[in-house]
Amino acid sequence: PLMRIDIISIFPGYFAALDQSLIGRAIADGLLDVRVHDLRDWTHDRHRTVDDTPYGGGAGMVMKPEPWGEALDALLASRRDDGRLRPSGQGTVRAQEDAASSVTVRREQADGSAPLPVLVVPTPAGIRFTQAMAEEFASASGLAFACGRYEGIDHRVIEWASDRFDVREVSLGDYVLNGGEVATLAMIEAVARLVPGVIGNPESLLEESHSQTVGGLLEAPVYTKPAAWRGLRVPEILLSGNHALIAAWRKEQSETLTRSRRPDLLDGH
Ligand code: 6GU
């Protein structure tokens, strides 16, 4: 596969959605290798506890560091053997040929040292996820996502992981989700569609909202047949066959729309 994606979550069921549509096809075609892991597999008590009360007080619960430590240990170990994560004390090592194919960045580092595997930690306190970040992640040979719940993961997990992974604490925007699962689905979709072969017609990648090639402006409205529907006509210029005029109309629409909805995107123009 071109890209391996590991996901650690206490709700692995969310990721059944990845078997649908384009991503599902890419997985079936062997372009993507997506592996979902239940964090509770790395607990050792009968209630499979993953959270505890916060030091210093406050509402809600915090994810305990120990299961995360073991899960991330397993992720790192999987780069050395068969790529399958094993909860400690379970299973045996079975070497396979794709040993080196796991969570690594494809690009060489300047100093020639081994690149750190990318670990994305979705959090509303993260830096904003952008199309540029999706493009960067799409050039990695592997990505891992650590999905937190409750008030977050004990911060020592992030500290510890930062010496072993290229850790990215990332937010989708200024609103709060209950956990990292839905954010992870969104990021995987944004990244996977940029992996060569995942989208049938790569030209469709070049013209859409937020892609660099339209200058990062919002895309003009689109229409299809019939030319008249419920008394509404498609803008005549789109029926003209004059490609230069159509391109100019789309550019004007794009700029007007962007000025009204997302003036922040015009700052660099
Ligand atoms: Cl990445 N996680 C959570 N829990 N909430 C969010 C988010 C991420 N991005 C926006 N809200």
Describe this structure in words.
The protein contains six helices and nine strands. It is an alpha/beta fold and 269 residues long. It has a five-stranded parallel β-sheet. A two-stranded antiparallel ribbon has the order 3-4. Strands 8-9 form a two-stranded antiparallel ribbon. The longest helix is centred in the C-terminal third of the chain and has 19 residues, at 243-261. It is elongated, with a radius of gyration of 22 Å. Residues 89-106 have low confidence and may be disordered.
Beta-strand share of residues: 15-25%
Q: Characterize the overall form.
A: elongated
- Kindly name the structural category: alpha/beta
Number of helices: 6
Please tell me how large the radius of gyration is. 22 Å
Spatial gap, N to C terminus: 39 Å
The average pLDDT value, as a whole number, equals: 88
User: What characterizes the major β-sheet?
Assistant: 5 strands, parallel
Poorly predicted runs: 89-106
What is the β-strand count?
A: 9
- Oligomeric state of the chains? single chain
Task: Give the SSE order as H and E letters.
Answer: EHEEEHEHEHEHEEH
**Each distinct ligand:** 6-chloroguanine
Q: Can you give the helix content as a percent range?
A: 25-40%
Strand order of the largest sheet: 2-1-6-5-7
